Structures are given as C-alpha cells and as structure tokens.
Amino acid sequence: MYKPMSICLAAIPAAACFAAVSIAQPPDGIVLRDVKGASARPFDGAGRKATCVLFVSTDCPISNKYAPEFGRIARQYGPTGVAFYVVYTDADGKPADAARHWKEFAYPCPGLLDPKRLLVKRAGATTTPESALFTADGKLAYRGRIDDLYVDFGKPRYAATIHDLRRSLDAVLAGRPVPIKTTRVIGCFIYNPP
After folding, report:
1. Region 103-130 average pLDDT
2. Cα–Cα distance measured from residue 21 to residue 50, given in angstroms and rounded to the nearest whole number
3. Of residues 4, 31, 16, the one with CA closest to residue 122
4. Using 50, 70 and 90 to split pLDDT, how confident is the model at 56?
5. Is the dihedral of CA 68, 192, 114, 117 positive or negative?
6. How far apart are CA 116 and CA 105, in angstroms?
7. Whether the Cβ atoms of residue 72 and residue 152 lie closer than 8 Å to each other
8. DSSP string covering 95-120, please?
9. CA–CA gap between residue 160 and residue 66 (Å, rounded)
10. 2-43 confidence digits (pLDDT tens)
11. Which of 53, 86, 98, 110 is the most exposed place for a label (fewest CB within 10 A)?
C-alpha cells in the first residue's frame, strides 16, 4: 500500500504558505488523543495565559532538528502559564510511531495526535515544524517558524538571528500584540489526504 511521506518545501512564496484563517477567531472545542491514548483538550485549562503548539511529522528532518529548541522554549515558558503541545500531523500515522518519536525526542510537553487535522485546520498550518500561539481566550496570535535558522530549504544559518516564537510568547505574556503575526516556515508540507 502506498504511504504518503512529508514533502519538503523549497522556494514557495510566503503568501502561498498560509491558509486563509482569521487570526482573531477563537478555537472550537477541539478534543484529540495524546500519544498515550488519553483524551486531551488543548484549549482547556484554568489560569492558562496562552497555548502554544508545534506541528510535527515523524519523518521530517527539519521538524526533528527543532525538537531540542522547542523543548527549551517549553521548559522556559511553561512555568509562566503557557501550555505547550507537540501535534503529530501524520494522517495515516500509527499512534505507536508517534509515541516512540515523542519519547525519542524527549519533548517536555504532551504529544497529541491530529489525524483528522482539526487543530491543523484551526491554526491554518501547512508545514512542519510550524508553531501556533493562541492567547488565553483562544485567539490565534502567531503562526509560523520558531526562528530564522533556515534561510531556505537546505540552507541553514550557523545560528538563528531572529527568534519569532520567543518574541511572540514575550508579547502575549506582556499583553502586547505580537510583532509579526505570520512567518514563512521552511520544512515539510503537511499532506492532506483526499
């Protein structure tokens, strides 16, 4: 049987990388399963200041490269009242593969399975690793790259110079608008089966 793989993006115009989603719309009551099989509601939680998700795929090398940085961000900002989730976008992926990947990359936050692309569609995500940051009232404040480490596909910098997700988290936690609401992500296309 044919199993689709993640398709890596090359030079696609930034405008083509973003789905038409209103940044101000609150999310619906999304319920997903986590990698351990439990039910999870990523937007529920008293006292939560924000929710941050990272869309990943088990077979995307750029997504895998960002696992340590996302872990550092989650450990730094988690204690400030931000809930973090890793969201597996593989529509036909096996839960056991996602659970193994989540454990192997030592994510310090829950791993969620999104085979029906409920959260992917809600955020307007098209690429892994794409992050989405929602405010306490569930409005999408930022969607895009974690940082600018990748100039283009196959062209990383020695070190990131702009830390978009951290800037957005700082802004949301301070009650300010994020500096840039969307950024282009270099990575692997999120396959949407027919």
Report:
1. 94
2. 19
3. 31
4. very high
5. positive
6. 24
7. no
8. HHHHHHHHHHTT-SS-EEE-TT-HHH
9. 12
10. 333 433 443 333 333 333 333 444 455 788 999 999 999 988
11. 110
DSSP 12-56: --GGGGS----TTPPPP---EEETTS-EE-TT--TT--EEEEEEE
C-alpha distances out from residue 99 to 83, 87, 104, 124, Å: 19, 11, 9, 24
Mark residue 17 as left, alpha or beta (left: phi above 0; alpha: psi -120 to 50; beta: remaining). alpha
SS3 string, 136-186, reads: CCCCEEEEECCCCCEEECCEECCCCCCCHHHHHHHHHHCCCCCCCCECCCC
Q: With contact defined as beta carbons under 8 Å apart, do 12 and 63 qualify?
A: no
Residue pair 21/12 in contact by the 8 Å Cβ criterion: no
What single-letter DSSP state applies at residue 92? T
**Residue 188 DSSP SS3:** strand
- 164-173 vs 67-77: helix crossing angle, rounded to 10: 20
In the predicted model, what is the mean pLDDT of residues 134-151?
A: 92
User: What 3-state DSSP class applies to 134?
Assistant: strand
Number of Cα atoms under 13 Å in the Cβ half of residue 52: 31
Q: In what order do the strands lie in the sheet with 7-8?
A: 7-8, 188-189, 127-128
User: Closest by alpha carbon to 107, among 127, 131, 87, 86?
Assistant: 86
